[in-house]
Amino acid sequence: MNQLNGQTYLVTGASKGIGREISLALAREGACVVLLSRDSGELDQTLQDVQTLSPKSYATPCDLGAPPSIETAAQTVLGRGTPLDGIVHNAGDINPIKPLFEADAANWARSMMVNVVGVQHLTQALGPVLQGEHRVRITTISSGAALRPLGSWSAYCTAKAGLDMWTRCIAEEGADHNITAVSVAPGIVDTAMQTTIRSASEEDFPLRPNFVAYHEDGQLSKPSDVASALLPLITSHTSEQSGQRFDVRDL
């Protein structure tokens, strides 16, 4: 226990689901956790729970779809002057769930912002606490949608595919800065995103009955189980693994 004493990890989308459970898992191991998420009561509650395990942990609101919010959050982190030992880019948005020719352009663009462009923006803004002599591990949460197209998920599929390539790019360039990066697909997990998927109309998303069945048949993984499986990869992946994509079901 407490293998991460003295280390600091930043987690996006930390208020609920996989992000919340990863934050708690890191805190149990002694890490100081920086929780980023849109401002909400859920973020407040998660911070309270994390601080019972790791009192120095803190939260800062951040909407990855809004560049000014990213800048403000980054300045908060930089103001602490503490090097980051790792980032878990977990935040994601499945919307818009619409056929490609019917999706609102602004919603499609926001998906790109939240799922990939904001990841680049935040990481670049945090450069001063990432680059240096210390070891930094970056983990991005991918999806099976990065590998195969799904009708009405054009924005999400495109963004996640881009996120996988971004991970490979930072793994390539980060080697000169002692930074490694991996991406990992978490499988089908019982999170708010799955609720959003099941709430879509069948007219917009013909595959909706499949996802309803996954839920009814108990096929969804628990966020806590996924976090436990991911933790060793997040905190201990090697230079040889940098740039690779993993599936949580193979860990």
What does this structure look like?
The structure is a single chain. It contains 8 helices and 7 strands; from the N terminus they run E-H-E-H-E-H-E-H-E-H-E-H-H-H-E. The chain has a single domain (8-187, 229-245), classed as NAD(P)-binding Rossmann-like Domain (Rossmann fold, 3-Layer(aba) Sandwich), CATH 3.40.50. Helix 2 links the parallel strand 2 and strand 3 (58-61). It is α/β, with parallel strands linked by helices. It has a 7-stranded parallel sheet with strand order 3-2-1-4-5-6-7, with helices on both faces.
Major sheet attributes: 7 strands, parallel
Shape: globular
CATH fold-level name: Rossmann fold
Q: What is the N-to-C order of secondary-structure elements (H for helix, E for strand)? A: EHEHEHEHEHEHHHE
Count of individual beta strands:
7
Structural domains: how many: 1
Mean pLDDT: 96
The CATH architecture category equals 3-Layer(aba) Sandwich
DSSP helical segment count: 8
Query: DSSP strand (E) fraction?
Result: 5-15%
Which strand order do you get reading across the main beta sheet?
Answer: 3-2-1-4-5-6-7
In angstroms, what is the radius of gyration? 17 Å
CATH class: Alpha Beta
State the secondary-structure class: alpha/beta
Regions with pLDDT < 50 over 5+ consecutive residues? none
> How many angstroms separate the termini?
20 Å
Fraction of residues in helix: 40-55%
